Structures are given as structure tokens and as C-alpha cells.
Amino acid sequence: MTGSLLERRAIRIKQAWEKFIKTGILENYVVSLSIGRSWKRCFEKNINPYGHLEHLNVNSGALCKQKVNNNFVLSTAPFMDNIYNFVKGSGFIVILTNNEGLILKTYGDPVIRQKMRSISMEEGICWAESNIGTNAIGTCIIEKKALQVNATEHYCKILHDISGSAAPIFNPRGNLVGVLALIGIYRDSHLHTLGMMVAAVKAIENQLSYQEAQAGLIEANKYAGTIMGTMSEGVLLINREGIIKQINKAGCGILGLRPGEGHGRSAQKVFGENSPLVAALKDGAGYNEREMTLNSKEGEPLRFSSNAMPIIDESGEISGIVVTIREIKSVHRLVNRIVGAEASFNFENIITGNNKLLAIIDKAKRMAKSHSNILILGESGTGKEMFAQSIHNYSEYSQGPFIVINCGAIPRDLVESELFGYEDGAFTGAKKGGRPGKFELANGGTIFMDEIGDLPIELQPALLRVLQQRQVTRVGGSKVIPVNIRVISATHKDLYQEVQKGNFRLDLFYRLNVLNIKLPNLRDRKDDMAPLVDYFIGKFRIRTGSGVEKVSPKTYEIFYNYHWPGNIRELENVIEQALHAARGDTLEPEHLPENILPKTAPQKEAGKEQMSYSDHEAQIIKEALVKFNWNISLTAKNLRIGRSTLYRKIKAYNLMSSLF
Ligand SMILES: Nc1ncnc2c1ncn2[C@@H]1O[C@H](COP(=O)(O)OP(=O)(O)OP(=O)(O)O)[C@@H](O)[C@H]1O
């Protein structure tokens, strides 16, 4: 287009503008559709075409707020600088506005900027179309597209000497965030300025996208870091070159490193060449619950269990692995909690007013504070396990597990692996990855070896070795595992007599019997009868729905005269059964099970065949065993008897035969 052509077009537009301002009629489309639409909006809003923009004030508050909160201004600065360098001396200024047309930044020669101030082109003034009519900035915001407004295309006459090119800036989500514009004197304008704005805005939008993606990554990284930091498990991210790229605080702790120390280290160096983790990195196969042992800087063994999961990239290649590690102690603690290996009784739960037993409790409390092995002797049901639990809870080992082993109940060929654990492939049927034994599981706590008198003689040397050396070696393994445990054993047998009979080793007897407690039978502490009866009535009243509140003198007489071979457990069972049978508020002899009644006592339900206590008990146990599918722990728990007692009763009543 030649100068004269441009001039002629300018004249035509001027005429059209004058007519439109007077009549509101836009006859032939000498202006673009965008400008035509804008003129109409201005006309309808009664914007004064002859106004001097004196109503426009700098809104410094809005400007300040925008600048403080907006790194948009900072992100665009280098681009505005570039354009300014390009148009320097051309009579144009570069302008950045927000999405409402508020001028945030102007770049330009001081003289031009000063001149532009006369038409309110300065930071803090809003160039919205509703303020100053058709203009490149305001109209670009409404039309949401790049456009150029020249001279008389402006709605207000005061702007007829200028030319503006503006392009909208959208963020990555497609929202308008601002406008980049080049404004100057009309006669110096150039057709290419609009193209320049569009290109610059494209670059700004790319920069915004990049920044947003980066901010997202930083935020995700921050979240991941926080999550890793709060985990009690150790977590490591290892790249394909085997370098530890991230390790959390727990991971450093488990590996004996200072926080942050593991970062950047070679996994092979930290875990050893033969570790499954190094293999997982090579072959891309993850693994679960593998045990590892390393030596700390101080030479202490660090034992932990680990899981690994490879990270596979889009091309199917291994780009690294995520490894989680957990101290064996904490794994065992968790296992113990799940299997219920926790001691629930305390000395306060032992109901007694008997002086002899009170003195024994005092002695047991003193013993609890030592680290020596304790042997508890007493007939069945006298409270040996209750004492063992109370000692554990009163001792330094109380935070650790309480593991019970019934030495008489484990099949002979399994005792060794149950006590000491086994390694992978130790025998046919051994679990992959091996299994820890009860001594390992009890580490840091107490091991209660019930029915120690029934421990097979051929296994006694191995137990003696563990007690002497305080370390175990798994069956089929060679690694020595140190264990810090308190050993409490118990038996209803006369252990010394067992030694003399040749069933029990004397050296093991001495080892176990460093401290000992002999619990009295119930028949020898009849003064405890009333408090125990009261206690058990209270314990079972709700469960049985019974209204019993007192015990008749005749019933007490029976209790005092009975010899209680099953001791407190038997009393507990008798009260529970009696509460089921009783209807009123008093426990009478007829509510009691047959076997505890003296021979002269009146018979219940004459004519009907009576079951003996033992038959009755055998039947109840048999039914419970069937109900719980012969799961000994569940059955014992449900019958509220010890596992050892259950085993003994199964043997005594020959209940195994009912299986075949
Ligand atoms: N003094 C007591 N106060 C309250 N309950 C008691 C007391 N003594 C024992 N018991 C209860 O009697 C039952 C048997 O106790 P425990 O299992 O400790 O006996 P035990 O001697 O270990 O038996 P076993 O040799 O048969 O394993 C438990 O239910 C326990 O709660």
C-alpha cells in the first residue's frame, strides 16, 4: 500500500468516524469488523468522543497489589526489553497490562513516555474500552484477539494521532492474563508492529507454560519430600546408574547414616555388590520382604527388611528403582502386635489378699527390675502366665514384645526351627526368604517358655547355648543374630525331680532357675476365695446376662471344701458356668457343676443322667475345637484358657482321636 493509498484510506475512515459519531450509522465497512463492533459499544455506552481523558486517574493501589502478587510482570520483562531495544528511537513505547487493561509496565524513550502521559498512557491507568473507547489495548481484551487501531479508528478524538498494536496473553489454561502492546505516533507506525506483538506474546506464553510446569514439578517434589520425610519406613530412589538420588530421614537412620548423607552415593557401595537391590536394578524384577544385614560404621550389625519396585519409563526401559527398608525390630514389633504377642496383665490385675501371695508379688516386682532369667513354678491355673506378663510389663523390656512358647506343644521336629528360625532352603517346605524364630521375634522383649519341663531333652543343649551366648543362628544358616531378651520359664512339673529322672539337663535347670517364684495353689490360700469369686462374678455378669449378686453360705462351703485341682482357672470356669445356670440373684449349690459338689449334695434333675465335670469339659472343648477348625490359639482364647492347658486337656481327654 502506498503512502497516498494509506492517506486516502485514512481520510475515508475519518469521514466514516465523523458521520458515525453524529448519527450512529456505520455505512460502508471502511473499518474492520472488530473496530466497527467497538465503535458501536462505545456509542451505546455514551462515551464522550471529544473527552480529554481527564477522568482517568492513576490507580496506584491496584497497580501495587498487582505488581507485588504477580511474577507475570517479572516473567515478561526480558521480552519487553527485547522489543524495546528493537523499536528504540522509533517513537513507540512497549506496554504491558493486566487482563483488565491496567497498565503495569511501560518501556520506552523518556521523551516519548513523557509525551504519552498527556494522553494518560502511564502505569496505573486503566485502558479498558469502557474508559477510553476503542483502543488497541481495551478492544483487544474484549475481542480476545490481536489487533491494530490506527488514528481515526480510535473512538475518542484525543487519540487520533496515535497508533496501537496489541496482542492478548493467555496462560496455559487458556485464561486471558494480560496484553502486550506497542503504542506510538500514528505517522511513525508500521504494519509489521502487530506481527511483532503476536510473535513476542507467543514467546511469553511459552515461558508461562514452562514456568507453570516447573512450579507444578517443584510443588509435586515438595509434597513427595514431605511424604517421604513423615514416613517411618526408609525410602530410597535409585537411578539407573545405581546412584541414590533421594533418601528420607528414616532411611538414613536405618542405614546408620547422618541425614542427607546417603544422597549421591552408589547403591552398590552402600548395600554391597551381592544385594538383591543391585540385581533388581539390573534385571528390573522387584522383590518383597528380603532381609539384609550390613555393618554400621561402628561395626554394629544393621538388620532390615526391604522391598524394591523398578521404575519403568515409556520405552519400557528401567529408569531406576524405589526401595523401602524397615528395621527388622520394627517388622517383628508389627508382627507381634498383629499376632497378639503382647502382655495385657499387670501386677494390679492379680486379685489377692493372701499375705504369702502379696509377698510373692513384691519379690516378683524386684525380680522384674533385674535382667536375670526367672523360673515360675506352680500347678496348672495358678497364674504363672499372668505373673510372667506382669513381670514383663514391670520390667525394662516392657516396650518390646512378649512372646510365648509352649515347649510341650510344638511338634518335636519343628521345635528347633520354631525357636531359632530357618534360612531359605533349610529343609523341604521351608518358606522362601526364610523365617525368624521366636527368639528373634522376642528381641528387645520377653520370651515366656511355658511348660519348659516338656522341652525334648535333645533340644536342651541348643536352648542352653542361646541362653549362654545371647545369640541365635537360624537352621540352615551361618549368620549369628544377637538377641537381647529376658527369659521367663514356667512349669507345673517338679523340675528338679525331672533332672533326677534324666529328663531335664541340670546345667539348663541352673540357667533358667537364677530367680524363682513358687505360686501357691488355690486350696492353700482359701482367704482369696471370696475376693476371687466376687471378681469373677463381676467379670461374667454382663457377658452371661446374669442377675447374680451374692453367693449363698452353702455355696461358699462347697467352694472351701473342694480341692481345686485346676486352681484359679477352674474357679473362673465354675463361676462362668454357674452364672449361666443361675436365675435369681444368689448363687446356690444347684447352679454349680456336678463335679465340684460333695457326694452328699442333692442331685439335680433326678432321673436324668448327669454328666461328670470332666465329661462336660471334654465336650465343651471338643465343640470349641471343631468350631474353630482346631485353631489352638483361637479355641484357647474363646474358652479363656491358656494354650498349654488346652494342649494338656486335648491330651488328657484324648480328643485328637476324634479327628481320625
Ligand atoms: N490372682 C488372680 N487374679 C485374677 N485372675 C487370676 C489370678 N490368677 C489366675 N487368674 C486367672 O486364671 C487363669 C489362669 O491363669 P494363668 O494362665 O496365668 O495360669 P497358668 O498357671 O499359666 O496356667 P497353665 O499352667 O495351665 O498355663 C487366667 O484366666 C487368669 O486371668
Tally of separate helices: 25
Q: Which residues form runs of ≥5 with pLDDT under 50?
A: 601-610
What is the level 1 CATH name of the largest domain?
Alpha Beta
**Structural class category:** alpha/beta
Q: How large, in whole angstroms, is the Cα Rg?
A: 45 Å
Q: Tell me which ligands are bound.
A: adenosine-5'-triphosphate
Number of strands: 21
* Main sheet: strands, sense, barrel: 5 strands, antiparallel
Task: List the strand order in the largest sheet.
Answer: 2-1-5-4-3
Number of domains: 5
Keywords:
binds adenosine-5'-triphosphate, Rossmann fold, 5-stranded antiparallel sheet, Beta-Lactamase, 43% helix, elongated, 17% strand, 25 helices, 660 residues, alpha/beta
How does this structure look, described?
The protein has 660 residues and is an alpha/beta fold. The chain has five domains: 3-212, GAF domain (Beta-Lactamase), CATH 3.30.450.40; 233-335, 2-Layer Sandwich (Beta-Lactamase), CATH 3.30.450.20; 340-509, P-loop containing nucleotide triphosphate hydrolases (Rossmann fold, 3-Layer(aba) Sandwich); 521-605, Orthogonal Bundle (Helicase, Ruva Protein, domain 3); 611-660, Arc Repressor Mutant, subunit A (Orthogonal Bundle), CATH 1.10.10.60. It contains 25 helices and 21 strands. The strands form six sheets. A five-stranded antiparallel sheet has the order 2-1-5-4-3, with helices on both faces. It has a five-stranded antiparallel sheet with strand order 7-6-10-9-8. It has a five-stranded parallel sheet with strand order 12-15-18-11-19. Helix 24 crosses helix 25. The longest helix has 38 residues, at 193-230. The chain is elongated, with a radius of gyration of 45 Å. Residues 601-610 have low confidence and may be disordered. The structure holds adenosine-5'-triphosphate. The site of adenosine-5'-triphosphate (ATP) has 20 residues, from helix 14, helix 22 and helix 25.
